[in-house]
Amino acid sequence: MPPPLDDPDAALMLRYRDGDESAFDALVEKFKSPVFNYVCRQVNNMDDAEDIAQNVFVQVYKSAERYEPTARFTTWLFTIARNLCLNEFRRRDRHPLQSLEETVTDDPASAPTQIADPRARSPAIEVSEKELQGRVLAAIQKLPENQRTAVLLCRYDGMAYEEIAQVLNTSVSATKSLLHRARETLRNELREFLTET
């Protein structure tokens, strides 16, 4: 575990803890996109992701007085994000939502109108890229929670195995094993699609 001086983000958090509001602004600016992207891939809903990502920084704000740099700042931050995502999954299990689209009748007059985006790229390229991205994300969503979190933090957020292990509260070897099993599952899940292209 690196000392706080080796982690400029932890140093920023310590400055904020000591009353420097600009340090908090700098942390939000630096991490708002990575946190939002991680949460969005976890919960697969942009509106929920915006709320959860905002709550991550609310938790950081509220936890300032108790903050101690026992791990890298990013580990602490993404642990908060992961816990809030888990809370969202539990909330969804307790209170499932019904889609508004299910209430639409077969009457063509009641169908929602779709307007083409004039800035859109070639439809064939768009369809191919969106289909691949959709299949990859759908396959990731099917993974067990620890495997999914490990893949998202490794692939999309560029975290080292050591940091992922701390977020998941497990060993580095267990993290490597989780990632290996996840990659094998994803390879099998996407094999049919990848051989088609």
Short characterization:
The chain has helices spanning 8-17, 21-43, 46-62, 73-94, 123-142, 145-156, 161-168, 172-196. It is mostly helical and 197 residues long.
Structural commentary:
There is one protein chain. The protein has two domains: 1-95, RNA polymerase sigma factor, region 2, helix turn helix motif (Rna Polymerase Sigma Factor, Chain: A, Orthogonal Bundle), CATH 1.10.1740; 122-197, Orthogonal Bundle (Arc Repressor Mutant, subunit A), CATH 1.10.10.10. The protein is built from eight helices and no strands. The relative contact order is 0.10. It is mainly α and 197 residues long.
Quick tags:
single chain, 197 residues, Arc Repressor Mutant, subunit A, globular
Helix-residue proportion: 55-70%
What is the string of SSEs from the N terminus onward? HHHHHHHH
Radius of gyration: 20 Å
So what's the CATH class of the largest domain?
A: Mainly Alpha
How can the largest sheet be summarized? none
Total number of beta strands: 0
**Number of helix segments?**
8
Task: State mean pLDDT (0 to 100 scale).
Answer: 81
As residue ranges, the low-confidence spans are none
Shape: globular
Named at the architecture level, the CATH assignment of the largest domain is: Orthogonal Bundle
Helix/strand-derived category reads: mainly alpha
Assign the CATH topology of the largest domain.
Rna Polymerase Sigma Factor, Chain: A
Number of domains: 2
Strand residue content: under 5%
Rounded to the nearest angstrom, the distance between the terminal CA atoms is 44 Å
User: At the fourth CATH level, what is the homologous superfamily of the largest domain?
Assistant: RNA polymerase sigma factor, region 2, helix turn helix motif
